[in-house]
Amino acid sequence: MMGMLRRLGESIRASQLWRSVFRQGIPRDRRSRVLAVMGNVFLHLHPPELRRSGVRLSFTWCLGGLTFFLFLVEAVTGILLMFYYRPVAEYAYHDMVGLRGHVSFGLLREIHRWGAHLMVITCWLHLLRVFLTGSYRPPREFNWVVGVCLLVLTMLMSFTGYLLPWDQLALWAVTVGTNMAAAAPWLGSEGPGSSLLAVEGIPLVHPGSDVRFALLGGVAVGPAALMRFYVLHCVALPVLAGVLMAVHFWRIRRDGGISGPL
Amino acid sequence: MIAEAWTIDSLREGSNWLAHPARVMTICAIGLVAGLWWYRVWTRPRWAALLLGGLLAVVTLAGLDPVLRDKVCRPDNLAILLLVLLLCFFVWRGLRQAAVNDDRAERGEPPFEAGADDKVLTWPHLVFLELVALVACSAFLVIWSLLVRAPLEPPADLETVLNPAKAPWYFVGLQELLVYFDPWLAGVVLPVVMVVGLSALPYLDRNPRGSGYYTLRERPLAVSVFLAAFILLWMLPILVGTFLRGPNWTLYGPFEPWDPHTESPAELVNLSAMVWGERSEMEAGFGAEAALWRPVVRELPGIVLLGFYFLVMPWVLSRTAWRGLRERMGSVRYLVFSVLLMGMGLVPAKMLLRWLLDVRYIVALTEWSLNI
């Protein structure tokens, strides 16, 4: 019986179909292990070899990798949530209630929300780790800057998502946050300097034309803000983050891989 | 029994008294300085275990109180608790590995992470580690999702104002800064300073040592400034804003229930009023023919103070204590560094002025909504 299974397995692995997908057998020797990494588009993010200290769990704690993984989790659960959710003031809240009770495997929203919190956490801790190991030193300066941009984007993605449940918590949290935009110097109607931007006594920057208005599509959080935040949350910010992540990972390789003592 | 009840009550009252931002901040600042000074002692596993035990005991004891539990155990707050725990762990591990490396450096040995030629294959070493981390993270996330439902409150309604209205937890720190600063500073300028400062770090830190391994001895200034900013100015306001601020953003002790009550607001004074007194001619600038220079003259004390703080102090420091730093950095880097550092220092400085002298604004150019 066992012999038969073994022979079956061997013939599957010898078949043209199998070999067209997996070029290598199970990587057992050095050469095939190197090829396994180099020949795989996903593993190819890594160099075939790395320094022993960099692979130690207590050096990186996998925090950057986990942040990326959580981004993927958010993308997958987010796409599934988009099947059910309509970013229209009349429907949004009802769709949330529906997600809670009527959709089978009703963990989607939980995984998406807690995953987002977890991603903010791993992102901050990744920053702390990279700082404490002095890994932003030349030649990695620019990659640190890219990382800071990704940190800001992570928080903005989380913030724009916070409005989408369209409940009291969401509405007032986003009201608090976006009111700050109205206080931006020059660009916000309540900020310093905006009163100086006037032509013949008519102000250029007023509640109907400042940055908060651009963000919300109105002077307060309303249906227009819901649509804007939805588009930012589902399309604009993730695409931007995706591009920056590609740069971030590419630069890790270009700048000499995982950092270590010189 | 009576004695016990008295002890618990006085513990509660003591904690409520202690939970004022000024006292919390002072205690944490002292703790941070002590922790960085004696980092080789307390990070030893035995001491750290003792500290962890103490922390857990306090948390458990405090968690017995229903009022506090009600505030802490809101679904979104669990992320903050998780972050605090993880932050304690990573700061400990980071300083522990720094202590190990610094001991090695003193004995003339290379850091623990040394050995550039010492390579391992990605498959299986790293791939396996990543798989384990990924599975563990997924399991954690699924369990968290099974145990805690995502919150859903009543539908959005602009007519019914939520009180307290709090920003998402990662922005509550900025909201807490609104107590001390106008929105243009707390919500716009200070976050920009933070992001720009973070981005500028690798270009300002010219220290050639301590690259690619944990260490404190070889870069004491960088590590202590960063940890102080992260823990005292970023994490602590988040905790204060989330757990100690109730309706109308009033301060409540951890064991005080959030029943809305109107607290008589503290009498705050502007720095200019403290210097000039409430002299009427100084306030005359509000009139229709208000000359541009009048408010500026009125606010001269604060402007001079800020000028001294942002310009003279860095200059004096560059001639004295930070002479070496300035020479290593060069003039341009030192200028950027001092502006960013002083911008960051404005936060605790304003807090101190508020707590000690009840200062509302250092510079109150209310005419142009330019209050600092």
Question: Top keywords for this entry?
Answer:
A: 262 residues, mainly alpha, Cytochrome Bc1 Complex, Chain C, two-stranded antiparallel ribbon, 12 helices, 3 strands, B: 372 residues, 2 domains
User: In angstroms, what is the radius of gyration of chain B?
Assistant: 25 Å
- Give the tally of β-strands of chain B: 3
What's the number of domains of chain B? Answer: 2
CATH class of chain A: Mainly Alpha
Describe this structure as you would to a colleague.
Chain A is an all-alpha fold and 262 residues long. Chain A has a single domain, classed as Cytochrome Bc1 Complex, Chain C, CATH 1.20.810. Chain A contains twelve helices and three strands, in the order αααβαααααααββαα. Chain A has a two-stranded antiparallel sheet. In chain A, strand 2 and strand 3 form a beta hairpin. In chain A, helix 9 runs antiparallel to helix 12. The radius of gyration of chain A is 25 Å and the shape is globular. The N and C termini of chain A lie far apart (56 Å). Chain B folds into two domains: 185 residues, no CATH class; 101 residues, no CATH class. The longest helix of chain B has 30 residues. Chain B is an all-alpha fold and 372 residues long. In chain B, strand 2 and strand 3 form a beta hairpin. The model of chain B has no long low-confidence stretch (mean pLDDT 89). In chain B, strands 2-3 form a two-stranded antiparallel sheet. Chains A and B meet through helix 3, strand 1, helix 4, helix 5 and helix 6 of A and helix 6, strand 1, helix 7, helix 9 and helix 10 of B. Strand 1 of chain A pairs antiparallel with strand 1 of chain B, so a sheet runs across the interface.
